[in-house]
Amino acid sequence: MPATVLVGAQWGDEGKGRVADWLAAESNVVARFAGGDNAGHTVVVGDKIFKLHLIPSGILHPQVTCVLGNGMVINVINLMKEIDQIEGMGVSVTPERLIVSSRAHLITPAHIALDAAAEKARGSGAIGTTLRGIGPAYMDKTGRRGIRAGQIADMEAFGDALFEMMERANVQLVAQGQPPLDPKAATAEYLAAAVRLQPYIRDTSAYLNERLKAGGRVLCEGAQGTLLDIDHGDYPYVTSSSPTAGGALIGLGFGPRHVDRVVGVAKAFSTRVGAGPMPTELQGALGDRLRGTGENFWDEFGTTTGRPRRCGWLDAVVLRYAAQVSGFTDLVVTKLDVLSGFDELKIAVGYEVNGKHVTTLPTTLRELEQAQPVYEIMTGWKEDITAVRQPGDLPTAALDYVRRVSELCEVPLRSVSVGPERDQLVHFGN
Ligand code: GDP
Ligand code: IMO
Ligand code: MG
């Protein structure tokens, strides 16, 4: 039985968590394959709002086993806090329900301190990271000096490795004029969390291959988004992992023949949190209107950091690019309800770059920064669409809008969401 990969088509926060929650209902396993607790996936179940950072959205379905894959970077202290929080909300997160790859790298206090120091050193060129230690943890991984979850099995050697890592970080921190860590205290705190993690750790690649062989359905829950990919995003304003479809195979350890579906999730408009180019960004009243005031939990303020998100019109150049990089077979458009009430809506269908019209994403940062969107104007609709469940009940203008988006990125439209709750989905068939 096959695997489905779910990927964010923009700059993250597309509503992947709620789409994963829907697809998890028909899955046996839900696996995260990249990133760490820089992610913030919101899932609404009845009167409960879950904000998941490390634990896959599948945890909210009792039949699902969740996996944290080898491609992730895991802060053990924060994972234990999240497990406690989710259990406190009535959801079981035992080692029978959540398994963690012994090959996943660990984020330690050293990485968090180094992330903050690096951002400070970048000054006005700061990336606007989530300060969760993501970049430095992946740097230690590729630098071949990282610590993997499997090392917890030998607690003494693990403690020594942690201590050494903090001492190494201190040399760098002091050189950058930053306060050093207390390696002894930080190691002790981390070890206490690591003891709790131990029963969750196993060979997740072997587990996933066994489940796939036995006919299990696996959903690979992407984090971040295509434009934040270390290779395919607008470098250097990216994260340090591969959140696109290829990252699922590397980050979980099974072969491409298992994947038969790649679901691209796109918000009905654009948002970005952190620095970097965003050709369709709207300053002023229109941007504020898309963002919302913060009064509703779905308004555009970061799930992980609380920062206001930059907002703008939908960018079909970005979506087409995302579809190309990951090979989307299905498109899901979220937050269509937020566009109700506009007289007209714009979709960027190309850019002017240095006097030239282009329809593909420029490859250099300089060109992307200079890109002026070329818009197609669509008619808006006034109706509240939050109660719509059938495509035929959407206002014609709303239907035209989502159909045009699907046409522009050449991916069949599978579903549209019209509110954050589980049942606020409109399905367009297979
Ligand atoms: P993710 O990181 O891709 O999982 O997305 P986030 O959870 O960070 O941000 C998406 C926000 O939009 C969350 O607050 C969701 O509850 C909310 N949301 C998702 N789909 C819809 C929708 O169709 N309509 C509205 N109004 N909110 C939605
Ligand atoms: P989800 O899974 C939105 C952004 C940060 C910053 C850049 C690098 O909720 O969609 P990092 O801490 O990863 O080194 O930051 O990436 N970023 C996200 N933006 N949603 C996310 O995750 C993000 N994860 C990282 O804001 O611009
Ligand atoms: Mg998010």
TL;DR?
With 430 residues, the chain is an alpha/beta fold. It has 12 helices and 20 strands. A 10-stranded mixed sheet has the order 9-7-5-2-10-1-11-15-19-20, sandwiched between helices. Strands 14, 16, 17 and 18 form a 4-stranded mixed sheet that branches.
Plain-language structure description:
There is one protein chain. The protein is α/β, with parallel strands linked by helices. The chain folds into three domains: 3-101 and 202-263, Adenylosuccinate Synthetase, subunit A, domain 1 (Adenylosuccinate Synthetase, Chain A, domain 1, 3-Layer(aba) Sandwich), CATH 3.40.440.10; 105-197, Adenylosuccinate Synthetase, subunit A, domain 2 (Orthogonal Bundle); 265-427, Adenylosuccinate Synthetase, subunit A, domain 3 (Adenylosuccinate Synthetase, Chain A, domain 3), CATH 3.90.170. The chain is built from twelve helices and 20 strands. The chain has helices spanning 16-24, 76-88, 109-122, 134-142, 155-175, 183-197, 204-213, 245-252, 285-291, 316-326, 365-370, 396-409; strands at 3-8, 29-32, 41-45, 48-52, 65-68, 73-75, 98-101, 105-107, 201-202, 218-221, 259-267, 270-272, 310-312, 314-315, 330-334, 344-353, 356-358, 372-379, 413-417, 425-427. A ten-stranded mixed sheet has the order 9-7-5-2-10-1-11-15-19-20, with helices on both faces. Strands 14, 16, 17 and 18 form a four-stranded mixed sheet that branches. A hairpin with a 7-residue loop joins strand 19 and strand 20. It starts with a strand and ends with a strand. The model has no long low-confidence stretch (mean pLDDT 97). The chain binds guanosine-5'-diphosphate, 6-O-phosphoryl inosine monophosphate and magnesium ion.
